[in-house]
Amino acid sequence: MHAWRRERENRERESFAGMTCEHKSKREQMTIGMGSIWWVVALASAAMAATGIAAITHEVGGDKGWAVPQEMSFYTTWASDKTFNVGDKLEFKWTGLHSVLEVTKDGFENCTSSGTPNGTSPVIIPLETVGSKYFICTVGPHCSLGQKLSVTVGSKNSAPPAAPTTPATPAAPAPSSAPASLLANALSAATFAIGSILFTCL
């Protein structure tokens, strides 16, 4: 009789321990699951933010604005240390009598034009395509005196050209692969964490 009662008590204790472990396991699974979801969302948001490149509005000439420069190479020098990408904008601002007109390479080099210039400041011109863009002032001899600008527009995902003296470096992975990689890592981490909890009571 006593042996039967002890056996019954042992079974009840084992059953209770199993239920406690199972209850704890389910609770931890829920906690880990919710945490993993937030972890994946946070990493995905960071990845998308990292791959985005904000558009820039370039104020042509900086503080000097758009005017007849003292040096013929002024606007060439101004543009030389800047990166122009599709989606960026050029802002031409001036006082006095000036204008701005986009022209061909030949029109830029010879200060000739056939279009209708914009003579009201400020003028904002979006850079919508990749390639070289040319702009001149059509007022009198202003273009011949150096009031002209050429820029080279690249895509947002293109890397800036390396300096001639800089050794070539391996190309960086395409930006589009970053979100996929981060999401894969996050999902792997979440799966591992949940799996660890599932086997805690085995």
From TrEMBL:
This is Umecyanin-like. Residues 56-155 form the Phytocyanin domain. It holds the Pfam family Cu_bind_like. Residues 156-175 are annotated as: Disordered. Residues 157-175 have a biased composition (Low complexity). The lineage of its organism: Eukaryota, Viridiplantae, Streptophyta, Embryophyta, Tracheophyta. Keywords: Disulfide bond, Glycoprotein, Membrane, Transmembrane, Transmembrane helix. It comes from the Eukaryota. Gene3D superfamilies: Cupredoxins - blue copper proteins. The chain crosses the membrane at residues 36-56, 182-201. One of its GO terms (molecular function) is electron transfer activity. GO terms for cellular component: plasma membrane.
